[in-house]
């Protein structure tokens, strides 16, 4: 009977060990499932946040698109006004500038440079 009791005790321990292994396996599976659920939930929240931010950016972009085109139109207008002013100044002054250039080139008054010493009497003075 002692062996029978001993065998029964070992059998009980083996069954308890199997039950504990089952419980450990179930808790591992539960933990893995919770991790998968948490990942999918986080992914879903990230997608929702991304979509919300993209919609917010698109509305911001749409509301400011008019401002950009207005600024571009103002810059284009200012550029054309300045270009016209430059063209007008060119047309008004081109003849006078050409005349001044030709006068400087063609009307030469030859004279000695101030640093050049005259040969002869200048050295004695």
Short description:
With 125 residues, this protein is mostly helical.
SSE layout and pairings?
Layout: H1 2-106
Features:
single chain; mainly alpha; elongated; 125 residues; 0% strand
Q: How would you explain this protein's 3D organization?
A:
- It is a single chain.
- By secondary structure, the chain is mainly α.
- It contains 1 helix and no strands.
- The longest helix is centred in the middle third of the chain and has 105 residues, at 2-106.
- It is elongated and about 150 Å long.
- The mean pLDDT is 87.
Number of strands: 0
Question: N- to C-terminal separation?
Answer: 152 Å
Please give the radius of gyration in angstroms.
49 Å
C-alpha geometry = elongated
Structural class: mainly alpha
Order of helices and strands: H
Continuous helix count:
1
Main beta sheet: strand number and arrangement?
none
Spans where pLDDT lies below 50 across 5 or more residues: none
Oligomer: single chain
The percent of residues in helical segments reads over 70%
Strand content: under 5%
Mean pLDDT: 87
């Amino acid at each position: 009977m002692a062996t029978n009791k001993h065998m029964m005790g070992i059998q009980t321990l083996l069954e308890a060990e199997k039950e504990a292994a089952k419980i450990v396996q179930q808790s591992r599976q539960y933990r893995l499932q919770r991790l998968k659920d948490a990942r999918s939930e986080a992914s879903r929240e990230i997608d929702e946040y991304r979509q919300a931010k993209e919609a917010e950016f698109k509305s911001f972009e749409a509301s400011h698109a008019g401002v950009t085109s207005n600024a571009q139109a103002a810059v284009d207008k200012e550029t054309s006004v300045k270009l016209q002013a430059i063209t007008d100044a060119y047309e008004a002054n081109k003849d006078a500038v050409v005349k001044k250039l030709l006068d400087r080139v063609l009307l030469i008054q030859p004279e000695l440079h101030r640093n050049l010493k005259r040969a002869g009497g200048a050295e004695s003075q």
